[in-house]
Amino acid sequence: MFLESAGNTLPERSFRSKKYRWEDESLMKITAYANKMSAAPGETIDFMVNCENKSFDVEFVKLICGDLNPGGPGYKEKVVKSRTSGKYKGRQQKIHAGSYAKIDSSSHFNALRSFSAQVFIWPTTPEKGAQTILGNWSPKTNSGFNFGVAEKNQGVALEIGLSRKKVFKLQTKAPLLSNEWYFITVSYDSETQIASIRQEPLHSHTGTKDKANISRKVTGTVSLNTNDAPLTIGALYTSEDKNRLVCHRHFNGKIDSPAICHSPISPGQEEALKRLDSEQVKIESLIARWDFSNDIQGTTVTDRSANRLHGGVVNMPTRAMTGWNWTGDELNWKNAQDQYGAIHFHDDDVHDADWEVDFTLTIPKSFRSGLYAARLRCGSSLQEEDYVPFAVLPPRGRATAKICFLLPTASYMAYANEHMGTDVPVAQLLGGRLVEHERQDLYRNEHREYGASCYDHHSDGSGVAYSSRLRPILNMRPKYRSWLGGSGSSLWQFNADTHITNWLEAMNYDYDVITDEELHYEGLKSIEKYKVVLSSSHPEYHSKDMWDAMMAYQQKGGRLMYLGANGWYWRIAFHESEPGIIEVRRNEGGIRGWEPKTGEYYHAFTGEYGGLWRRNGRPPQKIVGTGFTAQGFDISSYYERKPDSHRKEVAWIMKGVGKTEKIGDFGLIGGGAAGLELDRVDVGLGTPPSTYLLASSVNHTDIYLVVNEEILINYPGLGGQENPLVRADMAFFPTQNNGGVFSTSSIAWAGSLSHNNYKNNVSRITKNVLDRFISNKKLLDDTF
Amino acid sequence: MASSFDISDLCSTKFADLIEEFKENPVGHHSPQLQRLLNVMRGAPMGKKHCLIVSESNKEWILAKTSGIPGEPVKPTNLRFQNLADAEWYVFRERWKHLTGEKLQK
To answer: Is residue A782 part of a domain?
Structure first.
């Protein structure tokens, strides 16, 4: 709710004069997100805000440099005028995490007299507590039925509603094993008043006592009226919050082939429902048989019964999961869809926080393309401030500069809200120092409902394959230090990339900003008007459409400056119907926080084989000349020139740099221009033969190790002090039609640009290349 | 400098050079022996593991400990540091004490 105009917002000076430091009474009093990460003039962006205070102030700022390090160029943002700026009423908005399938209420299951249900389950945390497999339940009156994993892993529990809100409970008391398949049936017969559960393990382990078949007469008046509540699979419906369902008892694990009938069925009918296509099953009492192998790419769940009681998934559980009947003979779900009838539900899945909109910005024509943010403040302390960054695109169909900065929003999404710093011991080993936590890190540690990154594990230990931007992404913020960002300014991803925008501004270049989503959805059209595309410091994640667009750009004579490393590394998929969510399957090799299970290597969203682009026949060397070779996160180093850099046809690149000068032995990210993640030239992996190796970095610490996709037989001496593969190769190669690619091959490069008031050899080389790339000159000088 | 060490054999007199090396340069290039010791220290499990909370960006850090349980709060201590090297040195001494029972001089 809009309260006041911008004229009544806190003056900047009074904000800065307040004590701006961490206090422990509340980590963040305001968090927010937008429905888009980019928009063109005239288009709108909705902002959703969770605010603990009565009101908050909104200003829009152009972000120039997000680094607070006093040893750097200084934090820079410019307030830009907007009618949307002003004071708004604060309110708390919650994220209801946890995935499930929802089927709208139906007369077919709203007021049953008897019922039976069957399902296959693969629980992953049976010890966690009560977890609902299927709920046809009214929370208002405690009527209906539900069943799931029992409290304290006492097997499977069935609850049946009785009159006066009482509940009949039956438990198998046979603890379930995690990561094993079970066939479960439950039933209630109103004629005999007998309730029963059968728990049938599909494994053949000896000595386990996880098989059960129990029945008991129900005493009391059974009430199966669900009062038009929805039926839920994977969680139990409890209430509503602003038109969103609120569920609890979230199930962790896979559910396959759930079916319900309006009476108990015979063992033969159970078998028929298990093994046959339900379209052919003639069971008179069948209400619904949901086939999760249908629409794996989408969000619906399909009922194969004649009733067609289709539903949908909420919070994007993982699909294309091997089912109870997966034989292992086929690894591609598209070739054996009937063996991929499982959905893996997680109690911490999040897709769309689905908060109510607090304000909407229509991008004014006066906003030149660039990096912007909504700055939100509900007080004067550190905890009372949040930023929601976004890109203002050039007007649709136009380029307003020769330079395009490609904001790597897919990579930001992959890292969104990562928890490695608080969760895993390797963080201090990788960083070679103590982990620093910002308030955002502590907040998202305690608010797991904000979702995790594709580097994290779900609460059940399975890998996080999906990541959404429709939630506050608290590590994609200006002023933010990251444990991954090396010593010094400790910058990583978004905030490190502001050193590129800062340098462009300082050097007076005009530039447009677009995001990965423009590149993905619009393809070559989004970049073909630009003379030069500048990458970010860490453009790691690319869809096939993004990859194809960038290659086409090069082939048409486009010029790419790759100002980072670990680029074009993982293959991702964007969901084809739901905006703002990506999928990563971390197959085979690569630096990864988890690995998918065998048989689950193909993206659900597209059916494409996942993993490294290198494993998809497109190593990064093919598109940018260099590819990931080593990483370490303590200190950075410098480059030394190579003979190619002295060749006359490319002498313009090093113009003004001494023959033996160290390149980048300074900087805010680890103290050098070559650091954090490093790429190298490798003709065997696709580096074009026309490539000039201009410089290579040297003298990295032993925290830096060769990446594991390079290691077949492991061997001693993989660290930076010994291994020749631990280096960043600065490279250039010409492409067709007078195009070219320049690669710095180091994530830390951006942190050195501003050194000595931009008078340094990293800035000079970057400027040499950019000036040449935006010119109409050919890229190789004549040598005669 | 000692050529190698056994963690169970750590003592400040025998490994004074490693301690001094760390104190002079807590982050960056280290001798193989010191690196090995730091790998043990920094690779400890997450329960009650030292870390830092940024109090004032680039100016002040609060010493804290992780819980080892995802979602459980990181617990701050009363100690604040105005530079990261001091924090590293303090935690090194704490970890040394934990490994050896021996209290190192400041």
So the answer is: no
Q: Distance between CA A98 and CA A244 in Å, rounded?
A: 13
Q: Are residues A290 and A366 in the same domain?
A: no
Domain that holds residue A47: 2-93+361-399
- Residues from chain A that touch B42, judged by Cβ atoms under 8 A, are 425, 428-429, 432
- Same structural domain for residues A483 and A536? yes
Q: In this structure, are A321 and A429 located in the same domain? A: no
Query: What is the per-residue pLDDT for A2?
Result: 55
CATH of the domain at A174: 2.60.120.200
Q: What is the DSSP letter of A102?
A: E
- What are the residue ranges spanned by the domains of chain B? 7-100
Q: What is the nearest CA distance from B13 to chain A, expressed in angstroms?
A: 25
CATH assignment of the domain containing A388: 2.60.40.1930
Distance of alpha carbon A514 from alpha carbon A407, whole angstroms: 6
Contacts of A453 in chain B (CB under 8 A): none
Q: Both tokens of residue A131?
A: 């977890």
What is the model's pLDDT at position A280? 65
Listed by number, the residues of chain B in 60-89 with a beta carbon closer than 8 Å to a beta carbon of chain A are: 60-62, 64, 66, 70-74, 76, 84, 87-88
B21 contacts on A by Cβ (under 8 Å): none
Contact B52 A436 (CB under 8 A): yes
Tell me the nearest-neighbour CA distance from A657 into chain B, angstroms.
27
pLDDT greater than 50 at residue B1: no
Amino acid in position B101:
G
> Do both A638 and A545 map to the same domain?
yes
Q: How confident is the model at residue A279 (pLDDT cuts 50, 70, 90)?
A: low
Rounded Cα distance, A197 and A189, in Å? 12
Count of alpha carbons within 13 angstroms of residue B19, beta-carbon side: 19
Judged by CB atoms within 8 Å, which residues 11-40 of B form the interface with A? 26-30, 32, 35, 38-39
Strand, helix or coil for residue A131? strand
